[in-house]
Design brief:
It contains 10 helices and 10 strands.
Length: 300
């Protein structure tokens, strides 16, 4: 694959990988070498993983980015740079990528990028303190300690190049104030923001989930059909399951959005494809409980 005068500003692939030859205006300098096994445009996590995998397989890679910063939507920007980024996104509305026809000696494919915001309003000025911090484009990227991604990052020695920080606490905005999300049975009973009834209901619910998970992992109990949660309930929306357990709204919201980290409104019946099933909700709860205390008593 040949790249003559390649430039990250003129690449026709806003987030793509290709093994084709890309021609560019003659005013750009020629890249040396001029032949690559793979060309990747965009330095977000998916593109970087593809690029790293190709390099690990002894392939030559040309890695470009149309932005003046690395990381794509996984980057952190100063407030002023963030506004410039948002304005530039408005100037260039999303559209289908320029087509590059496949041939016998090259192939291309497009990585679809999900939008990270729907509508943003920005002011024309910044406080003086705005130079002292950075803003994540998509918010903090949280990984549960027991997630398979952590094992992958450990095996790949990514910790030698990327810094990971434990989450000290999880808070939820509820009725005009931030509430601490308890991460254990002991933390539930220490939490002064929860009423005695809420503590009892949450503890009872977590005990039910833990019993179901334990019974699923036990071969003998599985053969005997001893499951704490009926199979038909596992295929129902998780929000309905929580409602049937008579959990108060605060606990229900805490479980859905602060513990299992639901991405979509689980009360929106008009979007059934976005609703989490009970079996998936229980799996996320199991991941949450397994993450507790794995690394220095942290969840993520």
């Amino acid at each position: 694959m040949e790249a003559a005068g390649a430039s990250d500003e003129t690449s026709p692939f806003p987030s793509s990988t290709t093994s084709s030859s890309i021609s560019h205006p003659t005013q750009y300098p020629t890249i040396d070498p001029t032949t690559f096994d793979l060309i990747v445009c965009g330095t977000g996590l998916p593109e970087s993983l593809i690029s790293a995998a190709a390099a690990a397989a002894a392939k030559s890679v040309l890695h470009l980015d149309p932005n003046p910063f690395y990381g794509s939507h996984f980057s952190s920007l100063s407030p002023s740079s963030l506004v410039s980024f948002l304005n530039s996104s408005d100037d260039h509305p999303s559209a289908a990528p320029h087509a590059v026809e496949d041939s016998d000696d090259h192939a291309s494919f497009y990585l679809r990028r999900c939008p990270v915001y729907s509508q943003v309003e920005t002011s024309g000025s910044f406080p003086e303190s705005s130079h002292g911090f950075l803003l994540d484009l998509v918010g903090p990227r949280v990984i549960y300690c027991a997630d398979s991604m952590v094992d992958l990052l450990t095996r790949s020695c990514a910790s030698n190049h990327v810094e990971f920080k434990s989450v000290d606490a999880t808070l939820m905005y509820w009725e005009g104030k931030l509430c601490l999300v308890p991460d254990s049975r002991e933390a539930i009973f220490r939490d002064r923001a929860l009423s005695l009834g809420e503590k009892s209901q949450m503890t009872k619910f977590l005990r039910l989930i833990q019993g179901h998970i334990a019974s699923e992992r036990s071969v003998e109990e599985a053969k005997e059909g001893i499951l704490r949660i009926p199979a038909e309930d596992l295929e129902r929306p998780f929000t309905d399951f929580l409602q049937n357990k008579r959990l108060p709204p605060k606990i229900k919201t805490m479980i859905l959005y602060a513990i299992i980290l639901a991405n979509y409104d689980q009360e929106d019946a008009e979007s059934p494809n976005n609703l989490i099933l009970t079996k998936d909700g229980i799996e996320s709860l199991a991941l949450y409980t397994n993450s507790v205390s794995r690394y220095d008593s942290r969840l993520t």
